[in-house]
Design goal:
Layout lengths: L1 H40 L2 H8 L1 E6 L7 E2 L5 E2 L1 H14 L4 E6 L3 H8 L5 E5 H6 L6 E17 L14 E5 L3 H12 L5 E5 L2 H9 L5 E5 H9 L9 E3 L5 E10 L3 H16 L28 H9 L2 H8 L29
Parallel strand pairs: 1-4, 1-5, 7-8, 7-9
Antiparallel strand pairs: 2-3, 5-11, 6-9, 6-10, 6-11
Helix pairs in contact: 3-9, 3-10
Length: about 350
C-alpha cells in the first residue's frame, strides 16, 4: 500500500511539475507578446512625447545635413527636423539626428528607430524601403551638376565636348554623365576616381577641366579651401539631372504622416504672404487639428522659431550661407519654382 501511494504521489508530482512548467512558459510567452503588441500599437506621436524629441536622419550633404566642428548637426534637413519637433512638442521641442552613410546606418530605417527620414528615390530603392515608407513631400530638389574654373570658356554643358571631367566611379553622377553625353552624341574624357579627396586634388591642379557631382557637394568644394592653386570655380546653371530629396515616414502610422505633412506644408505655405491662410504673416492659423496632437498656436510657435522654407534655405544653402546656391527649382510654386503646398483657392 505504501509503495502504491508513493507511486500515485510520484506520478501526480511529475504531472504537476510538468503542468506548472508548461503554464509558466505560456505566461512568459503571453507577457512577451502582450508587451510587443503594446509596443507595436503605440503611435509614433506617443513615442515622440515619451522621448521628448523627434529623431530624424539622412545621408550627409553640405547645406542639408552636416556635422560642425563642435559635433552639432546643421542644414536644411536638420532645421526641418527641428521645426517638426517644435510643431508637436512646443517651443522646447528637441530633436536628434542620425546619418545614413553605410549599410549599418540604414538598419535604423529598417528597424523603424527614427521618426522622419530624408531620402532620395535611389536610396529608397537600393535599400528596399519602398514598402516600409510613405513619401510625404519633397523638401529639396538636388541636382547632378558640373563645375568649372572661373576662367574656363565653358558656359554650357555642350561646351564640355572633348574635355576631361572628374567624377566618382560607380555613382549615380557617373550614370548621369554617361546618359547626357550619349544622348547628345558628344565625346568626353573620363577621369574616374574612387576617393573624393583625390578627385578634388586632381581638379585643383587641372588634370581634369571640370568636376561633376551633386550640386550641394560642388558648392561645398567651391566654398572650402581651394587647393594649392587657389582655384576659383563656378557651377554651370544647366543640370545633368534634377531629383527630389523626400521627407518620408513609416507606413504604420497615418496620424504621424499627417502631422509631418501639415508641418512641411506650413513651412512652404508661410512664404506666400498673400495667402488667405497667412493674411497676417505667421499670426494666421492654417490647421486647427487637436486630434493630431497640435496645440492651437503650433504654427505660430514653429514659424517664429525656425522661419518659413525660404528663411531655412537662405541660411543653410543660399546667399546667407557659405554655399551661395541659388534656389532654382527650390522656389515656391507661386514664384515660379517647384515647391507647392495646399492653399485656400
Amino acid at each position: 500500500m505504501h509503495q502504491s501511494k508513493y507511486f500515485v504521489y510520484s506520478k501526480y508530482s511529475k504531472f504537476f511539475k510538468r503542468t506548472t512548467a508548461f503554464l509558466l512558459v505560456v505566461l512568459v510567452l503571453m507577457g512577451f507578446y502582450s508587451f510587443n503588441s503594446l509596443a507595436i500599437g503605440n503611435s509614433v506621436l506617443e513615442r515622440v512625447k515619451d522621448k521628448g524629441s523627434v529623431h530624424c536622419g539622412s545621408a550627409s550633404r553640405p547645406g542639408l545635413a552636416e556635422l560642425t566642428d563642435q559635433g552639432d548637426w546643421r542644414g536644411l534637413n536638420v532645421d526641418i527636423c527641428r521645426a517638426i519637433s517644435i510643431a508637436i512638442l512646443g517651443s522646447n521641442g528637441s530633436f536628434k539626428y542620425h546619418q545614413y552613410n553605410s549599410q549599418e546606418d540604414f538598419e535604423l530605417i529598417k528597424n523603424q528607430q527614427d521618426d522622419v527620414y530624408f531620402l532620395t528615390g535611389s536610396e529608397i530603392r537600393n535599400q528596399n524601403l519602398a514598402g516600409k515608407l510613405i513619401p510625404i513631400s519633397p523638401i529639396f530638389i538636388e541636382s547632378h551638376a558640373v563645375m568649372v574654373p572661373d576662367n574656363s570658356p565653358v558656359q554650357h554643358l555642350n561646351d564640355l565636348s572633348g574635355r576631361s571631367i572628374c567624377f566618382l566611379i560607380g555613382t549615380s553622377v557617373e550614370r548621369s554623365l554617361e546618359s547626357y553625353f550619349e544622348f547628345h552624341g558628344l565625346k568626353w574624357l573620363r577621369q574616374a576616381f574612387s576617393e573624393e579627396s583625390e578627385m578634388i586634388d586632381s581638379y585643383n591642379v587641372q588634370h581634369c577641366q571640370a568636376i561633376a557631382g551633386e550640386i550641394t557637394t560642388l558648392a561645398g568644394i567651391r566654398s572650402n579651401d581651394q587647393g594649392i592653386n587657389h582655384l576659383s570655380s563656378r557651377i554651370l546653371t544647366e543640370p545633368l539631372l534634377d531629383f527630389p530629396i523626400l521627407a518620408t515616414v513609416a507606413t504604420k502610422d497615418g496620424q504621424w504622416a499627417a502631422i509631418v505633412g501639415w508641418a512641411l506644408s506650413t513651412l512652404i505655405s508661410a512664404e506666400r504672404n498673400e495667402s488667405r491662410w497667412y493674411a497676417n504673416g505667421v499670426k494666421g492659423i492654417l490647421i486647427e487639428a487637436p486630434e493630431l496632437g497640435f496645440d492651437p498656436q503650433w504654427q505660430y510657435t514653429m514659424l517664429t522659431a525656425v522661419g518659413h522654407y525660404g528663411n531655412i534655405f537662405e541660411r543653410n544653402l543660399g546667399q546667407k550661407s557659405t554655399l551661395k546656391l541659388n534656389r532654382a527649382l527650390n522656389i515656391n510654386q507661386f514664384f515660379g519654382g517647384s515647391l507647392i503646398s495646399p492653399l485656400l483657392e
